[in-house]
Amino acid sequence: MAVKVRIPTPLRKITNDRDEVAAQGSNIAEVIEDLEKNYPGLKERICEADGNLRRFVNVYLNDEDIRFKNNLQTETRDNDEMSIIPAIAGGAGGAGGPGGAGGRGFLGHERARVNKRRHKREDSRS
Q1: If 0-12 CB within 10 Å is exposed, 13-18 middle and 19+ buried, where does residue 89 land?
Q2: Which end of the chain has fewer CB atoms < 10 Å from its terminal CB, N or C?
Q3: In the chain, what are the domain boundaries?
Q4: What is the DSSP letter of 7?
């Protein structure tokens, strides 16, 4: 199954500066293995030695957090969209702080973008 994977800026060195790549797999774990095969070093940046996702990495499949589905065993289908989102900690918060926009930082902005797309898709189904 071909899955479109969005690559965050900190990992784009590994994917030759590509922000999206295609990967194969019937579930998230297989997609990650395929990513590692094609982009060596990617898995160690997002997974622990035991294969589980690192605490500071969030993975979304079609805008849904896989932790609330079947985690790494979440099934994938052709044309699914997977987003790898590193949580960025720290910063002063507040609108004027390094996180900007109320201290959201990268992760907060990415989650807001994901939620906006999810609501837009749900509205179009109504």
Answers
A1: exposed
A2: C
A3: 2-87, 92-126
A4: -
CA distances (Å), origin 27, targets 45, 59, 94, 110:
19, 12, 39, 23
Distance in angstroms (rounded) separating the CA atoms of residues 28 and 8:
17
Reduce the DSSP state of residue 86 to 3 states and report it.
strand
Nearest in space to 25 (alpha carbons), one of 35, 11, 40, 14: 35
Q: What is residue 106's predicted lDDT score, i.e. its pLDDT?
A: 43
pTM of the entire predicted model? 0.71
Q: Hey, what are 60's tokens?
A: 């979304």
Task: Identify the architecture of domain 2-87 in CATH.
Answer: Roll (3.10)
